[in-house]
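Standup notes, protein team

Yesterday: finished cleaning the Nocardiopsis endophytica set.
Today: Pyridoxal 5'-phosphate synthase structure.
Blockers: none.

Input for Pyridoxal 5'-phosphate synthase:
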Amino acid sequence: MAPARGNGIRRLLRDLPVFAGATPPFDPASAPVEPLELFEEWLRQAVEAGVGEPHAAAVATADAGGAPSVRVLILKDADERGFSFATSSTSRKGRELAERPEAAMVFHWREQARQIRLRGPVLIGTPEENAADFLERSPEGRAAGMHGLQSSPLDDPDAVARAFEDGLSAIEADPRTVPSSWALYRLVPMEAEFWQGHPKRLHTRLRYSRSSIDDAWRRELLWP
């Protein structure tokens, strides 16, 4: 009987190094009262340390039946109202957020052995906020978002380039044009966890949680 193909993958995975670089210090006792302040501190440290694309985050959603899906996207903003990202409301994540307006988000900064996990309800922006976000994008980004067909089946690969050119033409004709499908989403965290890895597996996990938006944040350490 031939050996299972997965054996080679398992050996490959087992041989890969983890926590190969220097990990920054983290003292949870001195962490701020609210997670947004700590997120900004860690984000600035990641930028200064040269972490690649630290604004990229994996966002998980689920459909009405609870089946999950996840993808990596770019964080647009973070403030006291929540963590913002944008997409077409007709995309898979847009449809799932319409059915089930909640999500989880995770940032992974491998070079620093850090993760930040967020979970909570998701609110859609006002028409004015949606338009402002779209108009702040580059011309190429706006052209790519004009068609509203993201996640739809694609029969002709050349149609993507044609749609892009059509989008550029529409923007040139009216630089203020905004597709009705474009939406700015804001994840309002009810839970935020900051995870600092350690080469000897003495990881640190600090969790912030609250029961409602108006509640004060509670802080607690978790077993790694």
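Follow-up from PR in the comments: The beta strands are 56-62, 68-74, 77-79, 82-88, 102-109, 114-124, 182-187, 191-196, 204-209, 218-222.
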